[in-house]
């Protein structure tokens, strides 16, 4: 049986009770909370998924210990609680001096860091996780609707994150399973393949990876950074020993990565091109976090995407247009490398006299998959079309499982479909078809859109 975990505080819907700032109490109230370190952080009991007793002993220096947890919930549903410490704003309860909300595309975002130490009991069923929230607006109250990034340092028992595993990543000194689901907002979870009791990382390390997979956006706002535990059964003895959040987070890394190699372009069509480049290296200690892809049609380069690998496919381009691209690297502390040398790319003209179009029909769709058939390719030009290419973005978490009538490949979140020998030549106004089948996460109702033909 696949175990599904709901978001840690998604169903909270209740205000927080703040105990006196000078106290370091034992919190047993369902929604009990208190400030620590003169309001810099808030510790919350947050028994949001059950009515069983739970108490946390708060350390005014910046941590807490779960002293009582009478939970005994089945693991095929939500956890009982999320006792946690956080910086930022959570349901209108905001800490002092966090600088949040902060837009993920702002100049200071790359310098935001957090660290934690944790202690685990050898009993119960639980996970130990960061819960980092993003919203399309600078929200300070209510439910965030952008992305929820969870970072699981450890877990015990037969539990797993929301959705399904979509890949792996090497980030912040560890290897992580990457999970994705949507419960009204994107839940992107990173589960460490070997448990750890401490972590020190730049927030953008994980957020950049989520962006590169299509699950988050630079325009969204970071609203809170939370860290704690999700217990299903038991949980007494779980403890946060220390927690920090802020600009720099104590890091001394001020060394930028080396300059990436000049990008090279391949597979250029009327609407897309794929770039590859030589890797950067980072010697500052915070680790290479990813790459920014910059594009220009005149003299000014602007960022058009990010990647955690040394390739990127840029789509939605204009036929018969010249573009220039550069790449720069980012490390975990937010340092940026110099920009690479530029490559010049000219898109194809789209097949003379008007090019071609691609129109898709959804033949069948079910809970976790669909069939798109036919996709009709039509020559809209006045001259014979000798070969065609259709591109479209694949929604996050979707996988092409079969195709017919064309050669289909997927790279960087973009599907590229090319004709077969028998259907590549189209007279003016002539058409041909192809089709494909894909899987998608349970509950996701998306199908691909934005087909471009060249």
TrEMBL record:
Cited SMART domains: CBD_II (SM00637), FN3 (SM00060)
Annotated region described as Disordered, given as residue ranges: 248-270
Domain Fibronectin type-III, chain residue ranges per copy: 259-350
Lineage: superkingdom: Bacteria
Gene3D superfamilies: 2.60.120.180, 2.60.40.290, Immunoglobulins
Compositional bias per record (Low complexity), positions renumbered to this chain: 252-270
Leader peptide range in chain numbering: 1-23
Keywords per UniProt: Carbohydrate metabolism, Glycosidase, Hydrolase, Polysaccharide degradation, Signal
Matching InterPro entries: CBD2 (IPR001919), CBM2/CBM3_carb-bd_dom_sf (IPR008965), CBM2_carb-bd_dom_sf (IPR012291), ConA-like_dom_sf (IPR013320), FN3_dom (IPR003961), FN3_sf (IPR036116), GH11/12 (IPR013319), GH12 (IPR002594)
Family note: Belongs to the glycosyl hydrolase 12 (cellulase H) family.
PANTHER family, A to Z: BLR1656 PROTEIN, XYLOGLUCAN-SPECIFIC ENDO-BETA-1,4-GLUCANASE A
Name of the molecule in the record: Cellulose binding domain-containing protein
Source organism: Nonomuraea spiralis
């Amino acid at each position: 049986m696949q175990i599904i975990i709901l978001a840690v505080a998604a169903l909270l819907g209740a205000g927080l009770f703040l105990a006196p700032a000078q106290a370091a109490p034992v919190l047993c109230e369902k929604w009990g909370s208190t400030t620590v370190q003169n309001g810099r952080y808030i510790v919350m009991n947050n028994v949001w998924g059950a009515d069983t007793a739970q108490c946390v002993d708060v350390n005014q220096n910046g941590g807490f210990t779960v002293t009582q947890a009478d939970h005994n919930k089945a693991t095929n549903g939500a956890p009982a609680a999320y006792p946690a410490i956080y910086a930022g704003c959570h349901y209108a309860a905001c800490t002092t001096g966090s600088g949040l909300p902060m837009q993920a595309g702002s100049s200071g975002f790359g310098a935001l860091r957090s660290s934690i130490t944790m202690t685990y009991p050898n009993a119960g069923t639980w996970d130990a996780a960061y819960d980092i929230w993003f919203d399309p607006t600078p929200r300070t109250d209510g439910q965030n609707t952008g992305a929820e990034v969870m970072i699981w340092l450890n877990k015990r028992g037969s539990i797993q994150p929301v959705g399904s595993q979509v890949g792996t990543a090497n980030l912040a000194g560890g290897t992580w399973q990457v999970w994705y689901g949507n419960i009204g907002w994107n839940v992107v979870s990173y589960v460490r393949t070997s448990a750890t009791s401490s972590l020190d990382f730049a927030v953008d390390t994980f957020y950049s990876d989520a962006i590169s997979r299509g699950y988050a956006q630079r325009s969204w706002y970071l609203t809170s950074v939370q860290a704690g535990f999700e217990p299903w059964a038991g949980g007494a003895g779980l403890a946060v020993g220390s927690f920090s959040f802020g600009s720099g987070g104590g890091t001394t890394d001020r060394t930028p990565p080396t300059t990436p190699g000049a990008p090279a372009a391949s597979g250029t069509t009327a609407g897309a091109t794929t770039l590859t480049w030589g890797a950067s290296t980072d010697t500052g200690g915070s680790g290479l976090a990813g790459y920014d892809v910059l594009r220009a049609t005149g003299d000014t380069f602007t960022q058009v995407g990010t990647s955690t690998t040394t390739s990127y496919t840029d789509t939605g381009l204009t036929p018969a247009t010249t573009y220039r691209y550069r790449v720069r690297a980012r490390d975990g502390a937010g340092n940026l490398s110099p920009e690479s040398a530029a490559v010049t790319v000219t898109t194809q003209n789209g097949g003379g006299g008007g090019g071609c179009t691609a129109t898709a029909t959804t033949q069948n769709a079910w809970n976790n998959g669909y069939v798109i058939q036919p996709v009709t390719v039509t020559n809209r030009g006045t001259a014979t079309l000798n070969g065609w290419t259709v591109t479209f973005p694949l929604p996050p978490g979707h996988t092409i499982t079969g195709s017919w009538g064309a050669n289909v490949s997927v790279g960087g979140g973009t599907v590229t479909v090319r004709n077969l020998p028998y259907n590549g030549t189209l007279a003016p106004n002539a058409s041909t078809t192809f089709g494909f089948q894909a899987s998608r996460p349970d509950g996701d109702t998306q199908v691909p859109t934005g087909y471009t033909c060249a």
